[in-house]
Amino acid sequence: MYGAIIGDFVGSVYEFDNTLDYDFPLITAESEITDDSILTIAIADAILLKKDYGERLYYWGNKFSHPKGAYGNSFYNWLHNLNPKPYNSYGNGSAMRVSSIGWAFDTLEETIKQAQLSAECTHNHPEGIKGAQAVAAAIFLLRNGKNKGFVHQYISANYYDLNFNLQDIRPSYHFDVTCQGTVPPAIKCYLESSNFEDAIRLAVSLGGDSDTLACITGSLAEADPSYQIPEELKKAAMNTIPTELKHIVELFKIAYFCFSTD
To answer: Whole-model pTM above 0.90?
Structure first.
């Protein structure tokens, strides 16, 4: 989860004030986690407690009800419904919160199944489910030793056509909160990167929904065993997380021995 949290933290400043400059400041006085990290940690909590994904999203979403950047309108309404139901969303929220599932399960099949369950309590549109499954599957493959070429081939064959280059889409890319408009470029930012920081910089400087792009990209970059998360970035991001949520991150780390920075 560190990769997702750091990507969210770095991108938080640029979500509504996009930068196309690759050399933007990674850490600013305004940098902090957003709903992306809160809900990512909520999914991890559900795994640790063996509870329903929707129940933990509802609990933590209401516990921290006014994050930086705010929740999307549909999710906000879901949080304030006494009997919340999925709302057929294909927004990128299902994909940005799924990273812990990529680490927690022993088979690709179970990872894909759990990604669907984590998505469909809110994002039960096929595209919402697909986005979550693609990200979780890519993380699973990377942490199990598959290289970028394999991941590119697998995602292209099963989820999204990745046969494009970032430089080709940069001129026309725009703010897009859908899974289909966010997940493929986020994955490509990882695939075209040379290290963890480069991946985050590529994602944020693409413009668009910067915190979510970088959250997804960071979650994949962390799973690459050849990448190392800069300790300064990790500490800066973790310092903005409420103690209760930080405790979940630490428990998940212990339970799944999944963080490549230690």
So the answer is: yes
